């Protein structure tokens, strides 16, 4: 089943701040249409500034589209907030609260009881491994520790649709492998067949985990399909070559051995 459907989404930022500049006249998202299905991990891939975060923020209701619409299970996105999780690119934790307080605060916002939150913390810890940082203030945590807490906080209410902006950012190899297994489990039948849409710059990650890939370049969808389909369609030997051709216009280098 199609869980997330974006239809002709467009966005242009009117003002540029000191640190972020848009090229005048160029939309950040330009009639983006895409789908992410249930029981599937969909990876959103694109160069810096392609519009990935803007698109994911739009799904989470944090940016308004200039045109187009977003449907979740065929209905407007705002009707699904209780089943929706969004992990922002900067983690978004309250630095003065401990890891546990951050998770509990969000659980309470979703109406979960203390006992239920305790159970969820135990379950999520068994997959992500963050028990040792629960008592630490989020502001004193390392990047990888913050990311684990932020993931737990985003998943505390057992959402069905997971939108994750660079979830492996700052994680060490062991944590990346744990997270990968956990996301695979969540997308599986046993894990509830969840719809997972994530952005990343790690091509290896995409090859390891993604059922579907969407390549976004300068606010436009340049390719969709599996890693294999995109590689073959671009007459490339490796997915990285296909992505470099799509994202940066690099020519495909074919190395013939023997
Ligand atoms: N609030 C904003 N105001 C003005 N411009 C913005 C704003 N947010 C994003 N942009 C611009 O929109 C473009 C897309 O940004 P976005 O963060 O969505 O890209 P991205 O694909 O997530 O990039 P990265 O891979 O570097 O994280 C960039 O040119 C950025 O400067």
Structure report:
GO terms for molecular function: ATP binding. It holds the Pfam family ABC_tran. Residues 4-243 form the ABC transporter domain. Keywords: ATP-binding, Cell membrane, Membrane, Nodulation, Nucleotide-binding, Transport. This is ATP-binding cassette domain-containing protein. This protein is α/β, with parallel strands linked by helices and 258 residues long. The N and C termini lie far apart (46 Å). Helices cover 33% and strands 23% of the residues. It has helices spanning 52-59, 99-109, 114-128, 143-155, 173-187, 203-209, 227-233, 239-248; strands at residues 2-11, 29-37, 40-45, 67-72, 75-76, 84-87, 161-165, 195-199, 212-217, 220-225. Strands 6-7-8-3-9-10 form a six-stranded mixed sheet, with helices on both faces. The protein has a four-stranded antiparallel sheet with strand order 2-1-4-5, covered by helices on one side. Helix 2 packs across helix 3 (114-128), helix 2 runs parallel beside helix 4 and helix 3 (114-128) crosses helix 4. Bound molecules: adenosine-5'-triphosphate (ATP).
């Amino acid at each position: 089943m199609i869980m997330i459907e974006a239809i002709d989404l467009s966005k242009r930022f009117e003002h540029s701040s000191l640190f972020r500049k848009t090229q005048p006249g160029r939309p950040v998202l330009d009639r983006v249409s895409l789908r992410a299905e249930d029981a599937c991990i969909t990876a959103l891939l694109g160069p810096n500034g392609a519009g990935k975060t803007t698109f994911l923020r739009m799904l989470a209701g944090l940016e308004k589209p200039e045109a187009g619409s977003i449907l979740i299970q065929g209905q407007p996105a705002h009707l699904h907030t209780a089943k929706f999780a969004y992990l922002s690119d900067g983690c978004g934790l309250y630095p003065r609260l401990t890891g546990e307080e951050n998770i509990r605060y969000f659980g309470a916002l979703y109406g979960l009881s203390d006992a239920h939150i305790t159970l969820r913390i135990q379950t999520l810890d068994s997959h992500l491994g963050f028990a040792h940082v629960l008592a630490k203030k989020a502001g004193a945590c390392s990047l990888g520790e913050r990311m684990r807490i932020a993931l737990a906080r985003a998943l505390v209410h057992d959402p069905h649709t997971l939108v994750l902006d660079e979830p492996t950012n700052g994680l060490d190899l062991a944590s990346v492998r744990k997270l990968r297994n956990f996301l695979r489990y969540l997308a599986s039948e046993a894990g509830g067949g969840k719809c997972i849409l994530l952005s990343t710059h790690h091509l290896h990650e995409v090859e390891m985990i993604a059922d579907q890939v969407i390549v976004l370049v300068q606010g436009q969808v340049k390719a969709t399909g599996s890693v294999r389909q995109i590689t073959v369609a671009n007459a490339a030997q490796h997915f990285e070559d296909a992505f470099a051709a799509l994202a940066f216009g690099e020519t495909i280098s074919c190395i013939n051995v023997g």
